[in-house]
Design brief:
Helix 4 runs parallel beside helix 5. The strands form 3 sheets. This protein has a 5-stranded mixed β-sheet. A two-stranded antiparallel ribbon has the order 1-2. The protein contains 6 helices and 9 strands, in the order βαβααβαββαββαββ. The protein has 2 domains: 125 residues, Helix Hairpins (Orthogonal Bundle); 150 residues, Heat Shock Protein 90. By secondary structure, it is an alpha+beta fold.
């Protein structure tokens, strides 16, 4: 470029497929524009390599997601088919078979809904229909639904408690999505609490609404804690591990935050975990 010895190219990794991964530069020049030019070229090549690595990671995550989702969808689908065949040959067990089919249909429906939500979140097309609603009443109705589920499954060792605030909490958010978040957290608490208490608290703190769910279950496994709100973060045999990822994304879309911790274990506290999230009290 400047009629001087300006560039030295070294072959660093001869087995790589792309030149941007194989070469290294050493620049020798007294002219600043020459140095800046080769620095610019090298940075472009380096950025290309970083982008390619990111694309590879993204592609792998997408393939893993499809594989796991496909595997999880097979389980309820096969169960529905199996119980349908049994229903024909054992009509005397009709009620039992129908209940099993319904359970697996609900499981399949939720899995499909979760997969669609993850797609919306990652493509940034998750829409919120904000409205003012009574959060206290919403929590009461969710708790009532879950109490009925506990009774139906015969799990009388778990008690649901709501520390109802003195004044009703009015939220300005997507009612359906907030219901989904609370249901996900409550379902998660029930999954890991075979006996004990699950308590829900909702309150106003400064300019925020804070909702927390505390249980006396097994707590959060140390291995899971660093990636708790990531996709597929689960050690459970049931579930695909999307609920917390979706819940956190919904809360953040509202301008809030979600967090979790293990409870201290002592004579008064039997351990377990606490999940909580906050929301702005009103839209700015």
């Amino acid at each position: 470029m400047d009629n001087e010895k300006a560039l030295r190219v070294e072959l660093r990794e001869p087995d790589t497929e792309k030149i941007s991964e194989a070469i290294g530069f050493s620049v020798y020049s007294n002219r600043k524009n020459t140095v800046d030019f080769f620095k610019f070229v090298y940075e472009l090549l380096w950025n290309e390599r970083a982008l390619n690595e990111e694309l590879k990671r993204s592609d792998k995550m997408q393939k893993d997601f499809i594989n796991i989702a496909s595997h999880e969808m097979k389980t309820p689908t096969q169960a529905i088919l199996g119980y349908s065949y049994l229903l024909k040959s054992h009509p005397e067990k009709r009620e039992e078979m129908i209940q099993a089919i319904q359970r697996n249909a609900i499981r399949l429906q939720k899995l499909t809904s979760d997969i669609l939500d993850v797609t919306r979140i990652e493509s940034q097309t998750l829409n919120l229909n904000r409205e003012k609603f009574n959060l206290t009443d919403l929590i009461l109705s969710i708790i009532e639904d879950y109490r009925n589920r506990i009774e139906n499954y015969g799990n009388s060792n778990v008690k649901l408690l709501y520390n109802r605030p003195k004044e009703d909490v009015i939220a300005e958010a997507d009612k359906g999505r907030i219901s989904q978040v609370i249901s996900n957290l409550l379902s998660n608490a029930l999954k890991f609490t075979r006996e004990g208490i699950i308590s829900i608290t909702s309150e106003k703190k400064d300019s925020q609404i804070v909702v927390s769910i505390k249980d006396t279950g097994t707590g959060i496994h140390p291995e899971i804690m660093p990636r708790l709100f990531s996709k597929f973060a689960t050690k459970s045999q049931s579930g695909i591990g999307l609920g917390l990822f979706i819940s956190k994304s919904i809360v953040e879309a509202h301008g809030g935050k979600m967090w979790a911790s293990n409870n201290d274990t002592n004579q008064e506290n039997r351990g377990g975990a606490l999940f909580a999230f906050n929301l702005p009290l009103s839209i700015q």
